[in-house]
Structures are given as structure tokens and as C-alpha cells.
Amino acid sequence: MDALVEAVFRDCPGESDPAAVRELAAGTGFFRPDEVEVAVQLADEWLAKGPASGYNFIISEIGGKTVGYVCFGLIPCSLVSYDIYWVVVDRGFQGRGLGSRLLERCEQASRRLGARSVFVETSGRERYLPTRRFYLKAGYAEAARLPDFYDLGDAKIIYRKDLA
């Protein structure tokens, strides 16, 4: 049986999750150390404040090991738009549908919380082409492209999906 079939999902981060977030984000090889620290800070913020932090998590485990997560929340000053801050899957489980399952659960939870649209951003660098294809395959459309945003030659690409 495929391990992904046995994936367990939970929406309440625990004390060990900041370390798991660090390991997952760093382990992808995609994120700079400062970006990894931001991911950990969001998990710490949730542990300190719970839902009042404004961040929501869906964490996936297989065999008791955290193998992926998504972090999302209401965009400040919006009443109906949610941002997906992080979708991270362990390298050993990438390309097997776990990211899609996390994204679907994130969209369902966002809809329940009142979202009409969900936004996600990513880099325009070549190495992020699989990430951009992932969002397009999931029904997201490019909403904006900001040249030289992250660095010279590295655009910020914003995708949008309407949930209503």
C-alpha cells in the first residue's frame, strides 16, 4: 500500500512542529536560511497565540513523521481573501500527490473560514518552474508578476484561485 494513502492530517501544530517546519523547509533546498526562519517564526507564533495568530496550519504525517505542511491565513485588511504562505513537502514525497492533498485541504478550510479567493506567491526563477506548474495544475491563474522583486532577475509571481 502506498504510504500516501496512510497520510494523517491535523490542523493543530504541536510543540515539535517548529523543528519539523525547519527541517522540511531547509530540506527542500529551495529556501534561503532567512526564509526558513520566517517559516519557523509562523509556527512559533501559532504556538504562542493559537488561532489568534492569524495563521492556520495543516500538517501531514506518515508513520508518525511530519512529511509536509501548509500555512495559510486571512490577508490583513481583507475580509474575503486568504494567502497561502507555505506549502512544503519532504523531498522524498514530492511528486506523489501529497502537496495536492495539502493544497485541497487548505482550500476547503479557507472556504469554511469565509475565503472567496486564495492567493499564493512564488519565485520566477527557473528552479521554481515545477512549483509554478503545480499551482497551474491545481487551477490557479497568474494574477501578477513583479519583476526584480526577490532579487535582480527574480520576479515575484502571484497566483489566484477563486473558491466561490
Describe the structure.
With 164 residues, the protein is an alpha+beta fold. Helices cover 32% and strands 34% of the residues. The protein has one domain (3-119): 3-Layer(aba) Sandwich (Aminopeptidase). It has 4 helices and 7 strands. It has a 7-stranded mixed sheet with strand order 1-2-3-4-5-7-6, sandwiched between helices. It is globular. The protein starts with 7 loop residues before the first strand and ends with a strand. The mean pLDDT is 94.
Summary tags:
globular; 7-stranded mixed β-sheet; alpha+beta; 4 helices; 164 residues; Aminopeptidase
Topology at a glance:
Elements: E1 8-10, H1 17-27, H2 33-49, E2 56-62, E3 65-74, E4 81-89, H3 98-112, E5 117-123, H4 129-137, E6 141-151, E7 154-162
Summed up, what is this model?
With 164 residues, the chain is an alpha+beta fold. It contains four helices and seven strands; from the N terminus they run βααβββαβαββ. The chain has one domain (3-119): Gcn5-related N-acetyltransferase (GNAT) (Aminopeptidase), CATH 3.40.630.
Q: What is the CATH H-level superfamily?
A: Gcn5-related N-acetyltransferase (GNAT)
Task: Please state the overall shape, judged from the principal axes of the Cα atoms.
Answer: globular
Straight-line N-to-C gap: 35 Å
Q: What is the mean predicted local confidence, pLDDT?
A: 94
User: How much helicity do the residues have?
Assistant: 25-40%
